[in-house]
Amino acid sequence: MTVSALKNEDNPQAYEEHHVHQVSEKLVQVAAQLQPHTSIVAENLALPHPDSVFDFAISIAVIHHLSTPERRIQAIAAILRTLRPASEERCTGTIAPGRALLYVWALEQKLSRRGWDEGDEQDVMVPWVMKHTERENNAGEARVYNRYYHLYCQGELEHDIRQAGGFIIDSGYERDNWWAIATPKQVTL
């Protein structure tokens, strides 16, 4: 049995809606059982958190699922908005701003099992196979979900962070992913 996360695979935005409302809710239910914290399902383009309150934010395997450059930049801006800005303290000196760690799938995966590299398509549908036991699925067949990915090329994540109003502290490549640590704006410490 093949199940597609998209009704029309030419419409990656439909995948985004499916992922947020079906997949994320299940993950949050699992996370909610791990105390002592709370878990929510939220629209990553309009996070429900107040401005300037967090010391750190982590976004792993999220932004590359958004279907347009504008939406990816808007999601980064939403994360940066929630981070505490740098401030001056009379007694202790400068307090560093909040930081975000962002991870996205890289286009440059020539040595991985996927084999993508420069020159390949950056917007792809990747099949995820969910294997089930016979008890879970009468036929014992695997389900295949085609998931939308934007594969970031070198320098693209940093570009998107700057477009979102952020400042890059550090960035690099690790295990088929580009990563960056960013703050809401450039800060002199």
How would you characterize this protein structure?
- It is a single chain.
- By secondary structure, this protein is an alpha+beta fold.
- Helix content is 22%, strand content 26%.
- The protein is built from three helices and eight strands, in the order H-E-H-E-E-E-E-E-H-E-E.
- The strands form three sheets. A four-stranded mixed β-sheet has the order 1-4-8-7, covered by helices on one side.
- The longest helix is centred in the first third of the chain and has 21 residues, at 12-32.
- It is globular, with a radius of gyration of 19 Å.
- Mean pLDDT is 82; it is low at 1-9.
Largest sheet, order of strands side by side? Answer: 1-4-8-7
Helix content: 10-25%
- In terms of per-residue confidence, which ranges show pLDDT below 50 for 5 or more consecutive residues? 1-9
Strand content: 25-35%
Shape: globular
Structural class, by secondary structure, is alpha+beta
Number of helices: 3
Termini, distance in Å?
A: 56 Å
Rg computed from alpha carbons, rounded to a whole number of angstroms: 19 Å
Q: Sheet with the most strands?
A: 4 strands, mixed
Mean pLDDT: 82
Which structural traits does this protein have?
four-stranded mixed beta sheet; 189 residues; disordered N terminus; alpha+beta
Write the layout of secondary structure elements.
Elements: H1 12-32, E1 56-60, H2 69-81, E2 87-89, E3 93-95, E4 99-105, E5 123-130, E6 143-150, H3 156-163, E7 167-174, E8 177-183
Parallel strand pairs: 1-4
Antiparallel strand pairs: 2-3, 4-8, 5-6, 7-8
Short description:
The chain is built from three helices and eight strands; from the N terminus they run H-E-H-E-E-E-E-E-H-E-E. It has 189 residues and is α+β, with helices and mostly antiparallel strands.
